[in-house]
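Today's session is about reading a structure prediction critically. Students often jump straight to the picture, but the first step is always the sequence itself: look for stretches that repeat, for charged clusters, for runs of hydrophobic residues. Only then move on to the predicted structure, which in these notes is written as discrete structure tokens rather than atom positions. Here is the chain we will use throughout the hour.
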Amino acid sequence: MQDEPVISWKVAGALLGLLLILATALVKPIGVSTQYVVTDGIILHNAAPDVAESNEYFNKYGEKDDWGIGYGWMLVVGMFAGGAISALATKHFRSRNNPSVPSMWSTEFGNSSPRRMMHAFTGGVLLLFGARLAGGCTSGHMISGISQLTIGSFLFGISIFASGIITARILYRKRLAS
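Below is the predicted structure for this chain, in token form.
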């Protein structure tokens, strides 16, 4: 029998909504992927200002004195810290024989940690590239954008779920067949 959730999804959703209202009121809508571009832009504006100013993309992100970098990186670090604090506070940890290779992955592709890490890294790079191509990531579009009723964010949400379903069906076809 599975453990009961520590917090109801309804309560978690309401808390996330309140956090979003607070974040938007105090600073700006939340989003994570932009922080990487802002950081690149700040570095480029300081290292090669002519190149940064001639690039339309970096003119939009990462001005030389962009104050938002602290807020954005605080959100990125906070996600990791929040996950760790939640796991420690609730004592809900998942144990695996090989912590770097989930059982679903090892059933389908083997138990090689380096191979799993290479695929995870490649997936992360593609995800970040796609997020920037779409003008934002899942937190920016699906949490902030949809709550502001942005049409592009609804399209992003539909696209991300559809591509996720298709990808999972292709990657885990052996598991689905049995």
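Discussion point for the tutorial: The longest helix spans residues 68-90.
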